[in-house]
Amino acid sequence: xxxxxxxxxxxxxxxxxxxxxYLSSCFVFLFICISNALDNGLAxxxxxxxLTWERFxxxxxxxxxxxxxxxxxxIKVMADRLVADGYRDVGYKYIIIDDCWLAPERDNIxxxxxxxxxxxxxxxxxxxxxxxxxxxxxxxxxxxGTKTCAxxxxxxxxxxxxxxxxxxxEVDYVKFDVCNSDPKDFAAAMSFYLNxxxxxMVYSCEWPxxxxxxxxxxxxxxxxxxxxxxxxxxxxxDSWESVKNILGYYAINPxxxxxxxxxxxxxxxxxxxxxxxxxxxxxxxVQMGMWSIMASPLIMSNDLRTIDNFSKSLLQNKxxxxxxxxxxxxxxxxxxxxxxxxxxxxPILPKGSYVIAIIHTADDGRPTKASFHPSEFxxxxxxxxxxxxxxxxxxxxxxxxxxxFKISVNPHGIVMYAxxxxxxxxxxxx
Length: 430
Ligand SMILES: *[C@@H]1O[C@H](CO)[C@@H](O)[C@H](O)[C@H]1NC(C)=O
Ligand SMILES: *[C@@H]1O[C@H](CO)[C@@H](O)[C@H](O)[C@H]1NC(C)=O
Ligand SMILES: *[C@@H]1O[C@H](CO)[C@@H](O)[C@H](O)[C@H]1NC(C)=O
Ligand SMILES: *[C@@H]1O[C@H](CO)[C@@H](O)[C@H](O)[C@H]1NC(C)=O
What we know:
By secondary structure, the protein is an alpha/beta fold. Helices cover about 30% and strands about 20% of the residues. The chain is built from 14 helices and 16 strands. The structure holds 2-acetamido-2-deoxy-beta-D-glucopyranose (NAG) (4 copies). It comes from Tegillarca granosa (Malaysian cockle).
């Protein structure tokens, strides 16, 4: 998306040399434009949607558990709920089938991937048509290796074939895993083949996670060139421990990976588990607030048929979604600490505005009280800021850089405020 002069000249050189370049050497050129994101016109803000994995796992037992097995039926039911319950209209557009949709073997003759015929009796194109008719987009899962993580046929040796299959089914989003593979070279190759289909498909990578797991330093510039979003830490589970660990990694921000987030490419801390079994109300607010401030993809994995009103309205909080989707696309980072509290900060529009989130990740019996001056967090506009609390949308008044700001943060809790210069009278968010 972002162009700069060195890239433009690279493109010119590429044009001149085009006829001489073999397919394989294209990848060398892909890595030259340091600031560029994958140029497929997609994911200009963090993708939002719903995905099967964390909540429904690899449940293939449709005989005994017909309502919860990975099947056409489950995807259609969730697509219906995304629309009927208002999720689509606040931005959750992608419905993504994770592992365990495949038949145990490729077609013997054509070698094409086939969905499990019993669980997806009408095939994936039919499901894509259904999802599209609802104003939603369809995502699917594969793996670079010989087999997927759950042991279904992988894409190794079939990357081009599978990219073409996904395009022919009118898939809109492809999540590529790294089990049973050496992922490094393949991420770029699959990106190339997806591009060659001519169908824009969001490309979700687990490549950096594969490197993280092997202790290899991640080259985020290279990742951003070929992926729209990329996992860089372990799988989330339905627990505070897991959310806290992910936040810990994003707080450390190894190699300043936050700098690589932006329109077209995003760090992916994994699914929203809000509305499941493991998180308290405060912990759910921490996840939603932090995924918003970190410009993270908002991909839910939960049961929309049974979700309670608290979780549903948290997931549909328009102020938090607006912060997540802010078109500057800057990933918020840990800015400072306030005793045992962490202070995170994200620049948003209008210019000069910031979101401040203050979280309490430690265990304690009671809320922690604290205070600060906005100037301590770099909020130095001498005209002051209009401040809005973001979970409920209440205005909390006008603050100058040296006005004392008092807060109280629950254990495993969060408070979150937008600071917008009083000189800006546009109401972008609120
Ligand atoms: C393929 O890549 C080219 C060059 O980066 C880009 O202009 C085009 O939009 C891409 N097409 C798709 C379908 O991703
Ligand atoms: C496909 O080939 C495998 C191995 O050769 C065989 O076991 C299987 O029965 C074949 N499947 C079909 C549908 O022909
Ligand atoms: C990350 O950014 C900080 C502050 O901007 C800088 O001091 C540090 O050297 C950077 N680290 C890396 C690995 O780029
Ligand atoms: C949830 O909200 C709906 C509509 O807003 C309402 O009808 C329903 O009673 C609420 N359920 C609970 C358990 O509060």
